[in-house]
Specification:
Helix content is 73%, strand content 0%. The chain has 5 helices and no strands.
Length: 150
């Protein structure tokens, strides 16, 4: 069971999970301020400010860079992975969210004519470039604090 101990003592995984959690907490706090109430569904939600997916992979990448070097193969892999995640968040998933919004309006127009449809597609899937940028800054800051300052 040595692998379990190693897994839970891995600081790179720790900083990535912590960075994701901080991003989710920021989203919840911003929502409480904006909507004057707590929405528990935001704890594990995607979309919103900042991007927790971006924060997650960026903190991992910079953590690898700080510990193994920014010229290491491991950092290169993390860097490429982070770019794919950020592109997906701001591109593909954001486009899917916009399509869901259009489809939901289409469904709503049918309901105004007496058709009852229970389907509602999730619209907040992706991120704006600002939300992705904020997630990247948060991820970098978490890795810097965790591996350089501590």
């Amino acid at each position: 069971m040595e692998f379990i101990r190693q897994f839970f003592s891995n600081r790179l995984i720790g900083v990535a999970v912590l960075s994701w959690a901080v991003a989710q907490i920021i989203k919840i706090i911003m929502d409480i301020i904006e909507n004057k109430g707590f929405d528990a569904s935001l704890i594990l939600s995607s979309g919103g400010m900042p991007s927790s997916h971006t924060s997650f992979v960026t903190s991992l990448g910079f953590g690898v860079g700080f510990t193994q070097g920014f010229d290491s193969a491991a950092f290169a892999i993390c860097f490429v992975l982070a770019l794919v995640v950020m592109y997906d968040a701001a591109g593909v998933r954001r486009a899917a969210g916009k399509q869901a919004e259009v489809l939901n309006r289409f469904i709503q127009s049918f309901e105004s004519h007496g058709f009852k449809m229970e389907v509602r597609l999730k619209e907040l899937l992706g991120h704006t470039p600002v939300e992705v940028g904020a997630g990247a800054i948060l991820g970098f800051a978490m890795a810097f604090i965790f591996f350089v300052l501590l």
